[in-house]
C-alpha cells in the first residue's frame, strides 16, 4: 500500500515519507491508496481485543511496510503506559448519555492518544537519526501541549508550537508553556488559529525552507494522527454492544470525525457521524448548504474549535468526488482565489448519507454543562458539551456516543461560570503552577516565524 495526494493520485509515498512530510507536495493531503475493509467475522474477532491490541491491529494496516507487527505492539504499549485509564479511553453512562472519555492522557485532551504514539514513531522510524528534525505545529490549544508532552527532550528533534496569542484558555497555555524541555519553542502568534495553520502550511510548501530545516509536522494533516484516532471508534462501538450506533463529535479541523469516517470505510457499521460546531460553523454550513466559505474566526468558550479552515475536509472531498483528484485541486484553487467553493446537490446528498451537522451556541453550551452537573453531578468540558448539544437534536437516531474530547479542568474558568464551582487539578496532570511560562510573542507573519525558527536552530 502506498500513499497518494488528494490533489494528485499518481503520487506514491511510503508511510515513513508521509509521516515525516505531513503535507503532500503541491499542498494536497495524503491518503492511503487502499483501505482495509473488515468482514463481519473479522469484526467479531477484533471486538475481543483490549485497547492496545486493537490499536496494533488497526494501525498496522497503514504502516505494515515499515513497522513490524510485534514492534508496533510494543510501541503502542509503551505509548499508553502513562495514561490514567488502563484501557486508555473509557465509555461511561451519564444518565442515558454514552460518553466516551478520551482525556486520560498526560495533557487532558484526546490529542494525547495519537500524539503519544507519534512521539515514539519518530524514534522508531529513525527519521531524526542523522539529521535534526524540526517539527512545526499549529495549535488551537490542545495539540500543542500533547505534542510537547510527546516530544520533549527527544534526541535530534526540535518542536515549534504556534498558538494564537490570548485566544486559548489559561490552563491550556500554562500546560504548553511550562512542561517542555529545551527542544521546545512556544510561539504566541498575534493572530487566530487559522493564521497559525496558514503559516505552517506555507512553510511546508516552501520547498527550500522545508528542506533547509528538515521540517516535519504533527498537525492532524499528518495522516498518522487520523490513524490512531480510528481505534476508539471501533473500541467504543464494541463496548456498547448495540446495532445502529452514531457518534457526535466536537469538531474543528475535521480530523477526529474524519477518523470515524475511515472507521466506517473499514467496515464498522456506524450509522451517522454528527459534526458539532460552535459559531465558527463553516462545517455545519457546508454540510447543510454546500457552500464552503471561511469567515473570520470568532472567539468562543470552546477555543479548540475556533477554526474556519477545516483542513481535513479536503480528505472527505476526495472520496465524495469519487477520488477525482483534479476536481479536488480545482475546488481548492477556487478556495484560494475566490475564498469559497460550492458543492453540487448530489455531493451534498452523498455527505448527508454519513454526516449530520449542528451548530451549538456558547449559551447552549453553558446551559448543557450546568444541566449535566445538576442532574448527574458530573462535569463535562465545554467542547464535550457541544457534542452533547448536537446529539440532542437527533431523537430518532438510536444510540449516540458523544466524544468527550477534553477534561473540564482545562477550561476551569468557563466551568466556574457555568456551575459556580472551582475544579481541582486531576492527579495525573503534572503541572507546576509556580513555574515561569516560556513563550515568545511573534507578529502574524510568515517571514517573522521563519526568522525565529532559523535563529533558534543555528
Ligand atoms: C482538537 C479539539 C477538538 C476538535 O478536533 P478536530 O480534530 O480539530 O476536529 C475538539 N475538542 C477539543 C477539546 C480539542 O482539543
Oligomer: single chain
Structure class = alpha/beta
Main beta sheet: strand number and arrangement?
6 strands, mixed
- Residue fraction in strands: 15-25%
State the separation between the terminal residues, measured CA to CA. 38 Å
Rg (CA only): 20 Å
Number of strands: 16
CATH architecture of the domain at 90-107 and 223-419: 3-Layer(aba) Sandwich
Question: The CATH topology of the domain at 90-107 and 223-419, please?
Answer: Rossmann fold
Q: Percentage of helical residues?
A: 40-55%
By DSSP (H or I, 4+ residues per run), the number of helices equals 19
Which regions have little confidence, pLDDT < 50, spanning 5+ residues?
Answer: none
Shape: globular
Bound molecules: pyridoxal-5'-phosphate
Name of the CATH class of the domain at 90-107 and 223-419: Alpha Beta
Amino acid at each position: 500500500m502506498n500513499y497518494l495526494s488528494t490533489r494528485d493520485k499518481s503520487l506514491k509515498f511510503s508511510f515513513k515519507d508521509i509521516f515525516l512530510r505531513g503535507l503532500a507536495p503541491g499542498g494536497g493531503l495524503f491518503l492511503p491508496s487502499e483501505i482495509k475493509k473488515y468482514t463481519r467475522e473479522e469484526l467479531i474477532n477484533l471486538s475481543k481485543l483490549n485497547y492496545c491490541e486493537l490499536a496494533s491491529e488497526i494501525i498496522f494496516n497503514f504502516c505494515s511496510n515499515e513497522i513490524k507487527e510485534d514492534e508496533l505492539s510494543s510501541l503502542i504499549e509503551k505509548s499508553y503506559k502513562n495514561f490514567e485509564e488502563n484501557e486508555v479511553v473509557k465509555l461511561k453512562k451519564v444518565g442515558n448519555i454514552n460518553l466516551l472519555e478520551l482525556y486520560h492522557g498526560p495533557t487532558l485532551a484526546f490529542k494525547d492518544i495519537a500524539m503519544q504514539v507519534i512521539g515514539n514513531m519518530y524514534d522508531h522510524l529513525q527519521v531524526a537519526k542523522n539529521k535534526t528534525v524540526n517539527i512545526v505545529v499549529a495549535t488551537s490549544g490542545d495539540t500543542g501541549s500533547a505534542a510537547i508532552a510527546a516530544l520533549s527532550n527527544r534526541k535530534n528533534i526540535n518542536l515549534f508550537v504556534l498558538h494564537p496569542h490570548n485566544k486559548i484558555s489559561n490552563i491550556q497555555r500554562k500546560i504548553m508553556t511550562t512542561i517542555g524541555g529545551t527542544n521546545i519553542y512556544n510561539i504566541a502568534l498575534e493572530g487566530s488559529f487559522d493564521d497559525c495553520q496558514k503559516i505552517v502550511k506555507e512553510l511546508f510548501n516552501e520547498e527550500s525552507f522545508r528542506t533547509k530545516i528538515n521540517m516535519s509536522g504533527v498537525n492532524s494533516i499528518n495522516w498518522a494522527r487520523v490513524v490512531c484516532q480510528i481505534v476508539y471508534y471501533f473500541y467504543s462501538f464494541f463496548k456498547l454492544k448495540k446495532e445502529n450506533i452514531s457518534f457526535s463529535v466536537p469538531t474543528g479541523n475535521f480530523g477526529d470525525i474524519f477518523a470515524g469516517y475511515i472507521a466506517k470505510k473499514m467496515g464498522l457499521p456506524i450509522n451517522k457521524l454528527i459534526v458539532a460546531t460552535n459559531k465558527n460553523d463553516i462545517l455545519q454550513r457546508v454540510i447543510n448548504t454546500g457552500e464552503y466559505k471561511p469567515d473570520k474566526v470568532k472567539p468562543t468558550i470552546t477555543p479548540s474549535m475556533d477554526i474556519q479552515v477545516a483542513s481535513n475536509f479536503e480528505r472527505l472531498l476526495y472520496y465524495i468526488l469519487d477520488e477525482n483528484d483534479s476536481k479536488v485541486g480545482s475546488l481548492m484553487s477556487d478556495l484560494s482565489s475566490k475564498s469559497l467553493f460550492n458543492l453540487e446537490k448530489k455531493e451534498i446528498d452523498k455527505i448527508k448519507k454519513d454526516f449530520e451537522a449542528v451548530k451549538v451556541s456558547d449559551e447552549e453550551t453553558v446551559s448543557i454543562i450546568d444541566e449535566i452537573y445538576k442532574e448527574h453531578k458530573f462535569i463535562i468540558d465545554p467542547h464535550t458539551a457541544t457534542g452533547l448539544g448536537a446529539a440532542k437534536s437527533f431523537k430518532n437516531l438510536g444510540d449516540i456516543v458523544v466524544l468527550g474530547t477534553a477534561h473540564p479542568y482545562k477550561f476551569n474558568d468557563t466551568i466556574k461560570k457555568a456551575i459556580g464551582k472551582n475544579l481541582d487539578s486531576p492527579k495525573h496532570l503534572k503541572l507546576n503552577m509556580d513555574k515561569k511560562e516560556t513563550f515568545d510573542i511573534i507578529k502574524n507573519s510568515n517571514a517573522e516565524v521563519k526568522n525565529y525558527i532559523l535563529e533558534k536552530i543555528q
